[in-house]
User: Which sequence fits this backbone?
């Protein structure tokens, strides 16, 4: 019996890149890999357990040459009718991203948002990077018995 796999988006099979993720791999990660800036990258390499029945799957896992491991979450920037730009990670997605950064402090979490070109405001297309900061005191503070 073949197990059923739930898709992230209805009609889109699991582990298939959307157009923004394809653009990110093609325009950002692959050129960095060829230039030797990063040692390795993969699409959806792991699923992180945040709580019971709650997981976070990073869009891309990236290994830097210095050994740092990054989780890149790729989103699209959209503009509301009022002209306000919003990154596509809000609500549940934002909470999961921040929770993952706090739960797994040995990963660097980065939200990579693509803003398409705008003729109306004469803006070129660009990638915006938002590192998700987590405050974990036990990583930097000495142990209680050292104080």
Assistant:
């Amino acid at each position: 019996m073949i197990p059923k796999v739930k898709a992230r988006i209805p009609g889109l099979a699991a582990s298939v890149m959307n157009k923004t993720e394809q653009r990110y791999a093609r325009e950002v990660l692959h050129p960095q890999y060829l230039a030797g800036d990063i040692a390795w990258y993969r699409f959806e390499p792991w699923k992180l357990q945040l709580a019971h029945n709650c997981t976070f799957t990073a869009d891309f896992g990236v290994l830097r040459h210095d050994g740092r491991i990054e989780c890149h979450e790729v989103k699209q920037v959209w503009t509301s009718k009022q002209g306000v730009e919003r990154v596509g990670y809000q609500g549940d997605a934002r909470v999961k991203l921040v929770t993952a950064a706090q739960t797994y402090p040995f990963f660097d979490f980065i939200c990579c948002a693509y803003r398409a070109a705008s003729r109306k405001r004469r803006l070129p297309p660009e990638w915006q990077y938002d590192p998700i900061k987590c405050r974990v005191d036990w990583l930097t503070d000495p142990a209680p018995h050292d104080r």
